[in-house]
Amino acid sequence: MDDLHKVANDLVAPGKGILAADESDKTIAKRFSAIGLESTEDARRIYRQLLFTTPGIEEFISGVILFDETLRQSTDEATPFAKYLASRGIIPGIKVDKGTIDLTNFPGEKITEGLDGLKQRLSEYKDLGAKFSKWRAVITIGEAIPTDVCVNANSEVLARYASISQEAGLVPIVEPEVLMDGTHAITTCEETTYKTLKSVFNKLSDYKVYLPGMLLKPNWIHPGKDSGQVAKDEDVARSTIRVLGESVPTEVPGVVFLSGGDSPVESTSHLNLLNITGGVPWQLSFSFGRALQETVLKTWMGKTENAETAQKEFYKRAKLNSLARKGEYREEMEKEVQV
Questions:
Q1: Active-site residues: which are they?
Q2: In degrees, to the nearest 5, what angle opens at C-alpha 290 toward C-alphas 81 and 210?
Q3: pLDDT tens digits for range 159-183
Q4: Is the pLDDT of residue 150 over 70?
Q5: Which terminus of the chain has a smaller tally of CB atoms within 10 A, N or C?
Q6: 192-203 b/e with 16+ CB inside 10 Å = b?
Q7: Which CATH class name applies to 2-335?
């Protein structure tokens, strides 16, 4: 338990956050396609290597969530990625869920798979160097959804995953994502996220999950993307902190937000105001994928000659989010921050 507590705290160390580089083959293929690059195993390895070998990121990045394939890959010098990251003081982690499927008899709702064989997979991942794990559940807002059945079923699966992960000696990152897809108002997102988080922590308690040895990865409280409402930082911060305060136990060391489809600038700005607002018992950090990588991919374009410039862009985004963790980010810094 002491080890779990230490790793959890190290992942949310002040000024640092997590890089989510755990895109599935399908997801990264879409992102590569957007820059005109075929998604081959070696192309994925080269891209992840570009991110992991960026000079200086250990100042801002505490951990990296890897995909199964990536955890088994190595640098050009044949050093396994997990070992390489650990040598730089960056904690390697692993995505362990197997994605979502339709929830039978509940149209428009999803349940996450992956509990079968999870204990054995976690044991292998630990041997490969992983120190923490992540599992994502998806909650959709729509007409008459989410239902209590969907919320509670996903909460139960998250709790079972978290208990198995801790038994294996890996810190679980619990990710119940309320999607921002839809036309709903910010108040609806607030109500749904509160309901979801209350259910999740009730189930975590039922399964006796050690709260100081886990992290929560939630969404912002945010209006639906098609609602026509602007996601103002002040509204996002106020509503998000209110919901967390009403649903997240103080024993949890940190909250590592997902970007949920917001742009890199929007995500960093949200995080910044959350930390300025403060007054909470947890570290407020980040576990960003697209919000850290979007501009990096557009800079790289799959070309070797762009690699150094792309690394500078990744360093910049990591540093800006580190500043946001301290409430010291300003949008005008976007063009100022350099390696």
A1: 175, 217
A2: 65
A3: 999 999 999 999 999 999 999 999 9
A4: yes
A5: N
A6: bbbbbbbbbbeb
A7: alpha beta
User: Helices marked H in 34-147 — which ranges?
Assistant: 41-52, 68-71, 81-87, 118-127
Whether 275 and 284 have beta carbons less than 8 Å apart is answered as: yes
Q: How many residues does the chain have?
A: 339
Give residue 79's identity as a one-letter amino acid code. T
- Cβ(171)–Cβ(94) below 8 Å: no
Q: What is the pLDDT of residue 233?
A: 93
Residue 58 is given by DSSP the state G
Tell me what the mean pLDDT of segment 47-71 comes to. Answer: 98
Q: Which residue has the tokens 């890996």?
A: 170
Q: What's 334's DSSP letter?
A: G
Owner of token pair 């997979």? 121
Confidence of residue 330 (pLDDT cuts 50, 70, 90): confident
Q: Six-digit token pair at 243?
A: 């919901």
User: What is the arithmetic mean of pLDDT over 138-148?
Assistant: 97
Q: Which residue has the tokens 């807002």?
A: 141
Residue whose tokens read 């602007």: 230
**CA–CA separation, 188 and 106 (whole Å):** 20
DSSP 262-291: --HHHHHHHHHHHHHH---SSEEEEEESHH
